[in-house]
Amino acid sequence: MANGTVPTRVSFSTQVGLESSDLLVWARGTKRVASKTQILRLATTSPSFGEFLTVARGGGQARRMVSPEAPLQKKKLPVVKLAVLAAGLILVAVLLLRGVDLVGVKDRGLATIRAAGPIAFFMAMLLLPAAGAPLLAFTIPAGELFAPQLGLAGVLALTLVILALNLALIYWLARFALRPVLTGLMKRYGYSVPRVTEKNALAVILVVRLTGSPYAVQGYILGLAEVPFRIYMIASWLCVLPWAAGAVVLGQGIMNGNFKLVGAGLAVLAIAVVSVQLLRKKFAKREG
Prior knowledge:
Number of domains: 2
Largest sheet: 2 strands, antiparallel
Low-confidence stretches: 4-37, 47-70
Order of helices and strands: EEHHHHHHHHHHH
Strand content: under 5%
Radius of gyration: 22 Å
Structural class: mainly alpha
């Protein structure tokens, strides 16, 4: 360009790039190294999100070397999460010191929810996560609440159906019903609505689903990005399936003192963790 300014664009040459060492970002005619946090921020603020500016590595081209003396970036502590955890632990400690029967409180709470019936519970599970309620608040107690009535297999099947409906609800809210409100909020805080093409839709879904951001936030980002609905549903459902199933089984085992179920639930969650790590390494190798 005449003034030497190059538009800001992020190269998702891996189609993900989360575990790559660094990506080179060109902005205002200068070259700098972008961290993973900066990449994700640019990915959601750049109007060219979803475009790829990649150059194939030549057969004899050496990889970029990183100086061993280069300072390592320090990861920021999750202050908010730690604060919430600390507050929860303090609350539990205070209740115990005051002689509150926490087991009794838990039992009475479960009895109240059980009395409301599975329809009310699973309707809440369908609607409330779209408003930000954590899925674990439903998946952990689901087995203990309704396995005697529906069977553990029935609870698992119903949970996965409700999750599919919830994914569709969040997508519809983000792409249609709440789009004007959400886009207005994004612009107000300096973000632009990202765009995704069919070519990189799966990669973007995996980026969002594997980064550990809140469940509802993930769905709203993908809906605003206009990810094709079919691939959104299939990929998103498969991403949340092991976590939801593992939590249901684990919760049932913990609340019943059934160590076999606890082991089965932990095994499912372990498989999910390993799968996530393998996917991240796979995409990191593509960048390398």
